[in-house]
Amino acid sequence: MAHNIERFTDGSAAFISARKDAWHRLGTVTTDTFTAAEAMDKARLGGWNVRTTSLSTTTDSPNGPVTVPVLGSYATVRTHPETGVPEPLGVVGPGYMPVQNEEHCDLLDAVVGESGAHFETAGSLNGGRQVFVTLKLPRTMKFQGRDHLDLYVAALNSHDGSSAFRLIVTPVRIVCANTQAAALSRARASFAIRHTSGAQGRILAAREALNLTWQYADAFEAEAAAMIEAELDREEFNNIIGRLYPEPKGPKVTEQMKRTHSRKLSALGDLFASSPTLQGLHGTRWAGYQAVTEYLDHVAPVKGGKKYGETYAANARALRTVTSSTLVTQKHDAFRAFALTS
After folding, report:
1. How many CB atoms lie within 10 A of CB 168?
2. H or E element that contains 260
């Protein structure tokens, strides 16, 4: 499935949400906030006991099949939350140390206790290979009385060696449920923890790093307020977009690639000029930045979208918004391009 939320044979899904959102057709949707313990239970994230085991392979020999060890590589294995049987998740090196889902939530529980944040979503992706948990922080920002943003902390972890344990501070526009990861160069918006023997100590260090959340919020709020007050005409918008998404050139560029690029620029221009989510903000640098984030989260094509329909495409975009580091980079670049300072 496009959303890649883990599904089980009883029809349940490894997902819980405090409210209806991009994943609302799956898992458990509560009418109120939920705790770390409920995330472990309702999203089927508890008791995985992720561990590493030695690898071996079987090959032919003159005396018949023989099993030989694969030196320097290990499999990550979990106890499947439905069947209880061991299940491989990935291949990692000798220094890899799993970070359990319970540790994941213990860290975020500390944020809840210290800041008044509450859990919003939790789930398992790609058969348990990636896990995410999000918190909504208690402070809401309102720019010039016009645009509301909430702050979320998203904790992302992998059990297949594909990425570090990451904490990301991200503002979300409530009007279109649009997750954004616009980081300011002078304010830290993420904290990465490698899966090594010292990971537990670095998880504790992350608690101190999260104290920068408000510094990040203050910096973002000040810059965004300035962007709302700064006018931006269509010509300058086109110039900025042209730098963010330059025209493809070179001998390998096809006519289809040129048409795709042209459609992207046209869609971005339409959002900047007339998106209903930007009512009262058109013609500003903030609208320019929001046009990019709205395009990436709600308009940009996804593989299989034309073939399987808009519901499939919307689910694929929702997954991409939560998990894609490429989108984080593009939004970061867009914020810097439209901001008055960098």
Report:
1. 20
2. helix 255-274
Q: Which of 125-129, 132-136, 319-323, 326-330 has the lowest mean pLDDT?
A: 319-323
State the average pLDDT for the chain: 78
Query: In terms of pLDDT, which residue wins out, 294 or 30?
Result: 294
Neighbours of 76 (CB within 10 A): 23
Residue 109: per-residue pLDDT:
76
Amino acid 175: pLDDT = 23
Q: For residues 25 and 17, what is the distance between their CA atoms, to the nearest angstrom?
A: 10
68 pairs with which residues across the strands?
57
C-alpha–C-alpha distance, residues 172 and 140, integer Å:
10
pLDDT at 25 over 90: no
Whether the per-residue pLDDT at 243 is higher than 90: the answer is yes
DSSP 106-136: HHHHHHHHHH--EEEEEEEEGGGTEEEEEEE
Distance from C-alpha of 321 to C-alpha of 328, rounded to nearest angstrom: 8
Question: Of 322, 290, 310, 315, which is closest to residue 148 (Cα–Cα)?
Answer: 290
**CA-closest candidate to residue 230, choices 152, 169, 284:** 284
**Residue 170: C-alpha distances to residues 78, 81, 87, 180, 297 (Å):** 30, 30, 33, 6, 14
| Extents of the domains making up the chain | 15-45+98-221, 228-338
- Strand, helix or coil for residue 205: helix
Cα 72 from chain centroid?
31
274 in Cβ contact with 324 (< 8 Å): no
Mean of pLDDT values over 256-278: 93
Q: What is the CA radius of gyration of the chain?
A: 22
Supply the pLDDT for residue 151.
72
